[in-house]
């Protein structure tokens, strides 16, 4: 059971690919919790299992993935034991996702407004959808007129805002953001991060953030889990991990982030 | 997969194709048909020079419409001619029509499609104008017109079909090349000082090869079908048995229970088309290095 | 240090009349040999157009580019092909920059062939192996297809391909933006090493001042097609003069 403070509890989750000698333990006995209105960051390199962990929450994992144990508690239910039908009801309405590539996450032949409306139709009946769309666009600081724009007419940053608006369409309790700013310029990244931080306060949104960049973690996350090869190697309060990293891997990940004021002898240092 | 060091894309494709049993079966079938086609062609030339009547033209009215037997494995037709001999002879016509028309249409289509897609602008305008013009002319009229100029017979069919059907492949190639032209590897090749010709034909073409292969395997039966139609109209093959002529004559007698001519000819068409299609599919997959690990 | 490239009042305009886009406006700067020169700005500011104009993938509309004493802004044909031996480019997208149907080593052999470097195939293959060594990749991997490599490895291959012609200047257009920070650090280190070992100069195009800070000697900040600030990288970051530079600085996540 989830305790009153936590919206999501992942316990001893293991997800494997392949069989026999070729088994890949993408997620290996991983546990973490996301508190109400809190932001948790899963940090690691590509291949560390951070994305698979996030996708496992609503079983959006690729077909070949095998759940080898553990549970994902959300809203008093173990998500791993739900049927596809029940999961579809939860995805998009209670748990929303935003992904790395805003450019390819929209259907190019429909307007932004149409695509947001689609999400509303699916999960929220009996509301004035026009009003709701303009409210959602307001929330992410986009002008109403963009509802009639097509994806190709918008910049990457605007599209990522639209993604967020769409993800918020059904007032989810948990937002899973899988590398939401990796494809964006730093200036746009800054705006999106600020927006996410503001929304998590404004609508009391819980966020599970997936990233490879420790720089992003510091601005947004309350808690951090560092993943390496399918396992969590370090976790804790963000400030505490940043100020006093315990695990070598965490230190290496942090050293790889380019800084504006590098230490003496400076530069970035690659991973071992 | 541990592959022989430093082979070309085609070398690799052959290695992979060899492991595909169905593809190898189809390849044997294609080889068999090819041998028959060459044999038929040689036989025709031989009798043409000697001015004798070949076995497939031997009429024997006493033997008309005989069912398959040990003497005539596939029976005889209305003039008592051996169906098997005519069928084998027909392979050469079907081959010539399928391959020669492809050899005319595909290079034209690929060439124009590639340059239109790659260079764009005026070149593209010209090519689009050219193929729109060709596409707007009814194909049959065009073929008839060509047949008027070069005379009845196979040459008219080759040119007629070849010169009208390049439009489809040209359009496909143009679209594919435009898609690839936008990719960074093409930009990188330009930055490395490679010439346009080299970029188009050495770098882009292998990436769009699957379109050509699929088009070829689909064209082949279509070309045979057109030959059937033209021979039926009397502007096609004159003095040799073609599958078109055989199907045409066999269909008249089918209701009398004379099933063998129709059965064996359609079976031959079916096998040939199937072999080409399956081989084409396998080749397309073999040419994609990403599908093979 | 000697001037390698001087760019004077360079303009790049796409299209004609009303629909034209003035991507690069009166840009003037120079790169010394062996220098890593950063070009920073957000997408759409014209930094990629400027990079492409220098490699002559786009034609400058007006202005002058002098490379090693020769005016290169109007080169054509054979002369342009020779210029390509001296100035090369690496692109942002390591996935799209390699031909998926060509073994990576063969793609490099192809380039050597076109420029008639090396006497025969064996010699060119040997050259490919050396190039793979110099970018820190296993020689044997040269005869594999692009899809067998990770993003960072692909970017190394692209660098090896660009080095095949022994250029003096490498235009690197956001070479690390598509990579994980950990891989990013490796590539940055490789670029630094190439500068030390070969005296290679770079035009390093990026949207991230923090990355630029860690590799470049000097930096130009580009905004709306114009260079708004230029100077030593430490100076620009510690004492930004232009408001836009300050905005870029404040966007960098810090901890």
Automatic annotation (TrEMBL), chain A:
Keyword Kinase annotated: no
Species the sequence originates in? Pontiella sulfatireligans
In Swiss-Prot or TrEMBL terms, this protein is called Oligopeptide transport ATP-binding protein OppD
Database matches in PROSITE patterns: ABC_TRANSPORTER_2
Transmembrane intervals: none
Instruction: Please state the protein's primary subcellular location.
Output: membrane
BP-aspect Gene Ontology terms:
peptide transport
Q: Which PANTHER family match?
A: ATPASE AAA-TYPE CORE DOMAIN-CONTAINING PROTEIN, OLIGOPEPTIDE TRANSPORT ATP-BINDING PROTEIN APPD
* Gene label: oppD
Domain (ABC transporter) spans 8-254
The signal peptide, as residue positions, is none
**How is this protein positioned relative to the membrane?**
Peripheral membrane protein
Q: Carries keyword Cell membrane?
A: yes
Automatic annotation (TrEMBL), chain B:
- Record bears the keyword rRNA processing: no
Q: Which PROSITE patterns match?
A: ABC_TM1
Membrane topology term reads: Multi-pass membrane protein
> Gene3D superfamilies in the record, alphabetically?
MetI-like (1.10.3720.10)
**What GO CC terms are in its UniProt record?**
plasma membrane
The entry's keywords: Cell membrane, Membrane, Peptide transport, Protein transport, Transmembrane, Transmembrane helix, Transport
* Domain of life of the native organism: Bacteria
- Biological-process GO terms, alphabetical: peptide transport; protein transport; transmembrane transport
Membrane-crossing segments per the record: 21-40, 93-119, 126-149, 155-173, 211-237, 258-279
UniProt entry tagged with the keyword Transmembrane = yes
Supply the Pfam families for this chain. Answer: BPD_transp_1, OppC_N
InterPro entries referenced in this protein's UniProt entry, alphabetically: BP-dependent_transpt_permease, MetI-like, MetI-like_sf, OppC_N
Please state where this protein is localized.
Answer: Cell membrane
Q: Where is the ABC transmembrane type-1 domain?
A: 91-280
Family, similarity comment:
Belongs to the binding-protein-dependent transport system permease family.
Q: Under which name does UniProt file this protein?
A: Dipeptide transport system permease protein DppC
Q: What is the lineage of its organism?
A: Bacteria, Pseudomonadati, Kiritimatiellota, Kiritimatiellia, Kiritimatiellales
Q: Which gene is annotated as encoding this protein in its UniProt record?
A: dppC
Automatic annotation (TrEMBL), chain C:
Residue span(s) of domain ABC transporter: 7-249
Q: Which family does it belong to?
A: Belongs to the ABC transporter superfamily.
SMART domains per the record? Answer: AAA
Organism source for this protein?
Pontiella sulfatireligans
This chain belongs to which protein, by name?
Oligopeptide transport ATP-binding protein OppF
Record-level GO BP terms: transmembrane transport
Q: Which residues cross the membrane?
A: none
Sorted alphabetically, which InterPro entries does this protein's record hold? AAA+_ATPase, ABC_transp_ATP-bind, ABC_transporter-like_ATP-bd, ABC_transporter-like_CS, P-loop_NTPase
The Swiss-Prot or TrEMBL record annotates one GO molecular function as: ATP binding
| Gene for this chain | oppF
Q: Which UniProt keywords apply?
A: ATP-binding, Nucleotide-binding, Transport
């Amino acid at each position: 059971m989830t305790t009153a403070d936590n919206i999501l509890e992942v316990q001893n989750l293991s997800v494997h690919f392949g069989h026999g000698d070729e088994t890949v333990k993408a997620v290996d006995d991983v546990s973490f919790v996301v508190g109400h209105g809190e932001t948790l960051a899963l940090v690691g390199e590509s291949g560390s299992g951070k994305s698979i962990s996030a996708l496992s929450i609503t079983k959006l994992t690729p077909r070949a993935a095998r759940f080898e144990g553990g549970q994902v508690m959300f809203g008093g239910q173990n998500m791993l034991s739900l049927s596809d039908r029940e999961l579809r009801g939860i995805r998009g309405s209670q748990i929303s996702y935003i992904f790395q590539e805003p450019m390819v996450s929209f259907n190019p032949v429909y307007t932004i407004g149409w695509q947001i409306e689609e999400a509303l139709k699916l999960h929220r009946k009996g509301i004035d959808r026009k009003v709701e769309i303009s409210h959602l666009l307001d929330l992410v600081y986009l002008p109403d007129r963009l509802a009639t724009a097509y994806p190709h007419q918008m910049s990457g940053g605007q599209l990522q805002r639209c993604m967020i608006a769409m993800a918020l369409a059904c007032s989810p309790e948990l937002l899973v953001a899988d590398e939401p700013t990796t494809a964006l310029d730093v200036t746009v990244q800054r705006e999106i991060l600020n927006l996410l931080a503001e929304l998590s306060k404004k609508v009391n949104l819980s966020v599970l953030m997936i990233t490879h960049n420790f720089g992003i973690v510091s601005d947004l996350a309350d808690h951090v889990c560092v993943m390496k090869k399918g396992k969590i190697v370090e976790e804790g309060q963000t400030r505490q991990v940043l100020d006093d990293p315990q695990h070598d891997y965490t230190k290496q990940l942090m050293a790889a982030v380019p800084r504006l004021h590098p230490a003496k002898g400076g530069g970035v240092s690659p991973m071992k | 997969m541990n592959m022989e060091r430093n082979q070309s894309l085609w070398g690799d494709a052959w290695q992979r194709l060899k492991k595909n049993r169905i593809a190898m079966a189809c390849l044997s079938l294609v080889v068999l048909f090819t041998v028959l086609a060459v044999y038929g062609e040689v036989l025709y030339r031989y009798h043409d020079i000697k001015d004798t009547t070949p076995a497939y033209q031997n009429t024997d009215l006493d033997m008309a419409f005989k069912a398959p037997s040990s003497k005539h494995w596939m029976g005889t037709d209305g003039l008592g001619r051996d169906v098997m001999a005519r069928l084998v002879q027909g392979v050469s016509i079907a081959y010539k029509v399928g391959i020669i028309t492809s050899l005319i249409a595909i290079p034209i289509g690929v060439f124009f499609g590639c340059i239109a897609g790659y260079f764009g602008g005026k070149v593209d305008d010209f090519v689009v104008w050219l193929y729109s013009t060709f596409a707007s002319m009814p194909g049959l009229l065009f073929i008839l017109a060509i047949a008027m100029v070069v005379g009845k017979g196979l040459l008219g069919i080759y040119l007629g079909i070849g010169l009208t059907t390049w439009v489809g492949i040209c359009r496909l190639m143009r679209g594919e090349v435009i898609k690839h032209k936008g990719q960074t590897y093409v930009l990188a090749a330009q930055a490395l000082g490679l010439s346009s010709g080299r970029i188009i034909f050495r770098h882009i073409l292998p990436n769009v090869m699957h379109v050509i292969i699929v088009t070829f395997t689909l064209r082949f039966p279509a070309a045979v079908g057109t030959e059937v139609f033209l021979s039926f109209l009397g502007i096609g093959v004159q003095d040799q048995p073609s599958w078109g002529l055989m199907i045409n004559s066999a269909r008249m007698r089918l209701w009398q229970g004379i099933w063998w001519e129709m059965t064996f000819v359609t079976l031959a068409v079916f096998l040939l088309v199937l072999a080409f299609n399956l081989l084409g599919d396998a080749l397309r997959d073999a040419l994609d290095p990403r599908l093979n690990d | 240090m000697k001037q390698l490239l001087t760019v004077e009042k360079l303009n790049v305009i796409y299209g004609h009349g009303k629909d034209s886009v003035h991507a690069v406006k009166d840009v003037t700067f120079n790169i010394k040999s062996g220098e890593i020169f950063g070009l920073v700005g957000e997408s759409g500011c014209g930094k990629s157009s400027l990079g492409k104009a220098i490699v002559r993938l786009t034609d400058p509309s007006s202005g002058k580019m002098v490379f090693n004493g020769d005016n290169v802004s109007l080169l054509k044909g054979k002369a342009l092909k020779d210029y390509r031996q001296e100035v090369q480019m690496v692109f942002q997208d390591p996935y799209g920059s390699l031909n998926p149907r060509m073994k990576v080593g063969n793609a490099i052999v192809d380039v050597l062939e076109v420029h008639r470097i090396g006497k025969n195939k064996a010699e060119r293959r040997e050259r490919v192996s050396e190039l793979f060594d110099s970018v820190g990749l296993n020689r044997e991997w040269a005869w594999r297809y692009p899809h067998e490599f990770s993003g960072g490895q692909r970017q190394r291959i692209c660098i090896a391909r660009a080095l095949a012609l022994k250029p003096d200047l490498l235009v690197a257009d956001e070479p690390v933006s598509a990579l994980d920070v950990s891989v990013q650090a490796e590539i940055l280190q490789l670029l630094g090493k190439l500068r030390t070992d070969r005296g290679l100069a770079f035009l390093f195009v990026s949207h991230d001042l923090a990355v630029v800070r860690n590799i470049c000697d000097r930096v130009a900040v580009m905004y709306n097609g114009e260079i708004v600030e230029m100077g030593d990288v430490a100076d620009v970051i510690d004492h930004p003069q232009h408001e836009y530079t300050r905005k870029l600085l404040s966007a960098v996540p810090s901890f």
